[in-house]
TrEMBL record:
SUPFAM superfamilies: DNase I-like (SSF56219)
One term of GO molecular function: catalytic activity
Organism: Araneus ventricosus
Annotated Endonuclease/exonuclease/phosphatase domain residues: 100-177
Pfam family, any one: Exo_endo_phos_2
Top-level taxon: Eukaryota
The protein's name in its UniProt record: Endonuclease/exonuclease/phosphatase domain-containing protein
C-alpha cells in the first residue's frame, strides 16, 4: 500500500514536528504541502525525504503561499520541471507504475488565468494526481454555494476529463466553528484504480491535519 498525503500546513517551519509525527504514523510516500510560507533563503529539511518546493513572496517581501512536495528516499522519483506562473511543483513517483504527483495552491485573492491551468495539465505526464488548496466552492465537492473560483475549477475538471477524489464533504476548514473539510483532489481517468480513505486528525488545539490516502 502506498500512501500520499495532502495538507495546507500554513507554515512549513512551524509545523515540522507535526510533519515528522505524520511520517512516523503513516509512512507516506509523498506529502503535498500548500501555504508553506518559505522564502528562497530559508532552509527546510526532513530526514529521509527529498523536498521540492516553490516559494512565493508578496509585494512587501514577506513569505506568502508557496508549495512543496516531500518524497520518501525509499521510493524512486524524479522532479518535473514546470514552466508555469502558478504555485505548483510536480514529481514522478514509482508506485506499481509511474504516477505524477502535483501540488497546487491557488490564492483566494489572486485571479487565475484558465490558460495557466490548461498549460499546467499539458506539462504533467499521465497518469497524474493534482493535490491542493484551490479556494473554490461548489456543490460538486460539498459546498452549499458556488463562487467564481469554484465554477472555474468545475470547467477545468470537465475540460480535461478529470475526476474528483472527494467523498462529497466540504473542502474548507473553518477556524471558529472547527469543522473539518477536505481539500480538492483530481486524477486523470487514465490513472490506476485508487482507493480513497480519509483520516482527520486534530494534532493539538490549534493545528488540524487534513489527509488523503491512496492505495496504488
Amino acid at each position: 500500500m502506498a500512501c500520499v498525503v495532502s495538507w495546507n500546513c500554513r507554515g512549513f517551519r512551524s509545523k515540522v514536528c507535526h510533519i515528522k509525527d505524520l511520517i512516523y504514523e503513516v509512512h507516506p510516500v509523498c506529502i503535498a504541502l500548500q501555504e508553506t510560507y518559505l522564502k528562497p533563503a530559508d532552509i527546510a529539511k526532513i530526514k529521509r525525504y527529498s523536498l521540492v518546493r516553490k516559494d512565493n513572496e508578496n509585494e512587501s517581501g514577506r513569505a506568502s503561499g508557496g508549495v512543496a512536495l516531500l518524497v520518501s528516499h525509499d521510493t524512486p522519483s524524479s522532479v518535473i520541471t514546470l514552466h508555469t506562473n502558478l504555485e505548483a511543483v510536480a514529481v514522478r513517483v514509482m508506485f506499481s507504475n509511474l504516477v505524477t504527483i502535483c501540488t497546487l495552491y491557488l490564492p483566494p485573492s489572486t485571479s487565475v488565468d484558465e490558460r495557466d491551468l490548461n498549460r499546467l495539465v499539458d506539462e504533467l505526464p499521465t497518469p497524474f494526481i493534482i493535490l491542493g488548496d484551490f479556494n473554490g466552492h461548489s456543490p460538486l465537492w460539498g459546498s452549499k454555494n458556488t463562487n467564481l473560483r469554484g465554477r472555474q475549477i468545475e470547467e477545468f475538471v470537465n475540460t480535461h476529463s478529470l475526476c474528483l477524489l472527494n467523498n462529497g464533504e466540504d473542502t474548507y476548514f473553518h477556524q471558529r466553528s472547527r469543522t473539518f473539510h477536505l481539500w480538492i483532489s483530481h486524477y486523470a481517468r487514465r490513472l490506476l484504480l485508487l482507493t480513497l480513505t480519509l483520516e482527520l486528525e486534530l494534532t493539538c488545539v490549534t493545528v488540524t491535519i487534513s489527509q488523503f490516502f491512496w492505495t496504488v
